[in-house]
Amino acid sequence: MQRDPISKYRPVKPIDLPDRQWPSRQIDHAPIWTSVDLRDGNQALAIPMTVDEKIEFFESLVRIGFKEIEVGFPSASQTEFDFIRRLVDEKRIPNDVTIQVLVQAREHLIRRTFESLEGVAKAIVHLYNSTSPLQRRVTFNKSKAEIKTIAIEGAELIKSLVDSIPETQIRLEYSPESFSDTEVDYALEVCEAVMQVWQPSETNKIILNLPATVEIATPNHHADQIEWFCRNLKERNKAIVSLHTHNDRGTGIAATELGLLAGADRVEGTLFGNGERTGNLDIVTVALNLYTQGVDPKLDLADIPALRDTYERITRMNIPERHPYAGDLVFTAFSGSHQDAIKKGMDLRAKNADSEEHWQVPYLLIDPEDIGRNYEAIIRINSQSGKGGVAFLLHRDHGLDLPKVMHPEVGEVVNRAADQDSRELASTEIYEIFLREYVERNSPLKIITIEREDISKSGEIQIEAQILYQEKEATICGTGNGPISAFVDALQAFGLKDFQLLDYRQHSIGHGSKTEAAAYIQIKKSDGTCHFGCGINSNIDLAGLNALVSAYNRSR
Ligand code: KIV
Ligand code: ZN
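# 3-methyl-2-oxobutanoic acid complex -> structure
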């Protein structure tokens, strides 16, 4: 790399638009979405899709609601041509879906493209040629006027061929390829020249697609280009302005969003952003960004996992773990403070289910359930995790509703285990640690049998228990106004006097015949230390007594 001064690269020239309007606008409706997965996305795959795979992908796109789908570049290969023919011959294109075909401004390619459309009810023919100074000089060695002529001649041929397939309702699209790097006034001049040929109307608009073929600057520059274009286009009412961003600088999504603020009506992109180099625009992310702002994206993205499966299988691409909305880890919090906040937010939401209108859970932009994700992965435990996360998992996965005062201690016990192994713990491992530490504590005190007898109408009961204490059997007896207090009385009569009962709670786990009770007891020793124990049993009395035994054993 060069060091200062850097002469190898230079900044883009800003667009002269001092009264730009886009920064103070908001997006309040979904754009027209056009999927280019089967063309731009497909041409970027190491192993392009087979015809069968394209058909399956096409059907997924239709299912989620795309009404415009660029199906390929039919003049470029036999597979592309055959795919369109299969769509037509097998009547796979729904009435409300328009297929789009891309073609370069070259005569034989345009003619072949029209052949592929025979029998199609509705189609968009998408013509392009490259317009940037770099492409003009390096790739084509042609002047501005010559490049404009290429566009005009392509447009004229297309216009003359439209009538050759009268049964097809054709709409027309033009892209000044490399628009992002083209002088805006020249791009406008070429687009208006194409409009002149195609003579669009307010009811049959031309689509002017303005590709950021290569993303060359910050998204605000893209927005300025789009606003400048929209404001200077003579017959704006006869054009649909379309965006087609790529992601070379990693800001393709932002560029599209700002481009929409700048006045564009339509967006071309792919699912999850597959495409040349760093990819096309990720339509799923932009659509869900709209959704989380309260705007209906008009795409059904309620089952992202299924969509992702299809996408990954057919494209042989993987969605990274932290990819917005779809990545494996995007609904996972490892950090303790995040887990705490998420748990509080979820609890509050569950409590106020009817009154909380808007989704407001800290650290979660979207309710994972809205897009078919579940809460399973929201909280995962490693050594960064805290009390809230552990309590959340024990509750969600194992039905244990730990008293709040117990959370910090249990969190610490589990964290220590995670730290020791330096790894993330699965929910079942956390449960096992909890059982080992708080439930299965049978030494030095253990109950062998226990009998209870109601001895007065006011609820007093008597307990007689067979116990093992320091490996010796004994029979103990006590009374109280419940089994716990009677057992404490019996233990104290036996000589285990150095503790007092501080807290007792219980709740049921599960339903019907499988219901169990969980009891939590906190005791305080005479040295001032406090200790928790838990008992889980189908018998509620035994759950409580076992909790007491565990707490006692943990105090030793
Ligand atoms: O990125 C691009 O410029 C394109 C055009 C062909 C529309 O894909
Ligand atoms: Zn592209």
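# post-check
The pocket of zinc ion (ligand 2) is lined by residues 40, 211, 213, 244, 246, 280 (CB under 6 Å).
The chain has a mean pLDDT of 95.
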